[in-house]
């Protein structure tokens, strides 16, 4: 595919190679792109249109919702619920799965999404993103149950994110066709292909972790970070750089672009709150893991591959270690020691 082709053309072209493709998946991707363009516009206008700040409500996970968490959730539903491409939706911002209106046409896909990830960054004008995961609905289902959504990440048909940074970019991966990067040309109103088959370098000397949690880390994580911090004189024999944007989409994007390892591990603080991790399996860990693996990287909880985990709950949280393959494997080996 040539650089500069539109996202729609890219999907049409790749779908054409799949026997029996009906155009429904192309339509769904188009709906998602429309939602992301709207969100990009809202995030961009920010204070000018009064969308910054808190909404004064909490989501199911007890986190304070930002106005934009609520608005972008509605934008996503509005763009997907009426076009006959999905049978149901689930969002990080909604307690229960979303059932389509009775008169809405039904499609064959289920979409799980985090409409605005990293929302603690909105008010300070730092990059945020939207993350989405697409799975097949069970045949004939028009009123999906929560169980219908609880599929291991390896069964995702596709996953992607949209990064609202200095430019707006969409990264999209299917199960067997690699990860592609598109950049929104705002004048033209389209996402254009800017990097094809993105590949993450296997080695890196950059890691990302919220170091303020270091006193709560488990020994394997502490060992890994200590060895990185020891630099040239330490066991790794080289200096490491560190980054923490507190916006998973921005961290994953950096890793896809220049390599690195990202960690939000399980720690004593999370355990004390009875949480299995900070990040959500269905809206964050699974879609990002598909993208990372399709780009030649690895993704694990530290103890098991994320994509083969059997989900237990729609809002389940898991530890996440992802990025350059050799570093992730090193972290896994420390967890097994
Ligand atoms: P959110 O979905 O409520 O925005 O939380 C997810 C975000 C991730 O993007 C980021 O990696 C992490 O939370 C940052 O957490 P912390 O503030 O603990 O560093
Ligand atoms: Mg999130």
UniProtKB/TrEMBL annotation:
Top-level EC class as recorded in UniProt: hydrolase
Q: What is its EC number?
A: 3.1.3.11
Summarize where Mg(2+) 1 binds, as residue positions. 92, 114, 116
GO cellular component annotations, sorted alphabetically? cytosol
- List the catalysed reactions: beta-D-fructose 1,6-bisphosphate + H2O = beta-D-fructose 6-phosphate + phosphate
One of the Pfam families matching this protein, by short name: FBPase
Record keyword Manganese present: no
Give the matching CDD domains: FBPase
Q: Which residues form the Fructose-1-6-bisphosphatase class 1 C-terminal domain?
A: 200-335
Residues at which substrate binds: 117-120, 210, 278
Q: Where does this one sit in the cell? A: Cytoplasm
Q: Where does Mg(2+) 2 bind?
A: 114, 117, 284
- One Gene Ontology molecular-function label: magnesium ion binding
- Mind listing the UniProt keywords for this protein, alphabetically? Carbohydrate metabolism, Cytoplasm, Hydrolase, Magnesium, Metal-binding
GO:BP terms for this protein? fructose 1,6-bisphosphate metabolic process; fructose 6-phosphate metabolic process; fructose metabolic process; gluconeogenesis; sucrose biosynthetic process
Family statement drawn from the similarity comment of this UniProt entry: Belongs to the FBPase class 1 family.
Question: Which proteins does it associate with, and in what oligomeric form?
Answer: Homotetramer.
In Swiss-Prot or TrEMBL terms, this protein is called Fructose-1,6-bisphosphatase class 1
Q: What is the lineage of its organism?
A: Bacteria, Pseudomonadati, Pseudomonadota, Gammaproteobacteria, Chromatiales
